[in-house]
Design goal:
The protein is α+β, with helices and mostly antiparallel strands. It has one domain: Ribosomal Protein L30, Chain: A, CATH 3.30.1390. It is built from 3 helices and 3 strands. It has a 3-stranded antiparallel β-sheet with strand order 2-1-3. It is elongated and about 60 Å long. 23% of the residues are buried. Bound molecules: L-tyrosinamide. The site of L-tyrosinamide has 13 residues, from strand 1, helix 1 and helix 2.
Length: 96
């Protein structure tokens, strides 16, 4: 039996970037620790990402599948709320 040639290749899954937002109250040190803990960055990389967010208003902490990105957002919001900081982050489709 001859199989039909696929007219459309299987597409890779949509990836999601976790974007952290700046605010005036969350301590820089807290943001650096969160980025290290939940996004697997070392101190230097986490500090650079934090400073980019501080200057630009937002920054990408990592890119993941939809479920993993949603879990990262939950972890960050939970840690921030428990520490009493207003830190916010969102996930959005990557490569818009
Ligand atoms: N802007 C904050 C400050 O000056 C630091 C900060 C950085 C807060 C990144 C949130 O996502 C953030 N303390």
């Amino acid at each position: 039996m001859v199989l039909e040639r696929r007219t459309q290749k299987v597409q890779p899954p949509q990836m999601y970037q976790v974007v952290m937002l700046n605010d005036d109250y969350t301590p820089m040190e807290f943001v650096v620790v969160v980025i290290q803990e939940f996004f697997g960055k070392d101190l230097e990389a986490a500090t650079q990402i934090m400073l980019k967010i501080h200057v630009d208003g937002k920054g990408v902490c990592g890119v993941y599948s939809r479920d993993v990105a949603a879990t990262k957002v939950d972890q960050v919001l939970d840690a921030a709320a428990k520490a009493g900081h207003p830190l916010q982050c969102i996930s959005e489709p990557a490569e818009l």
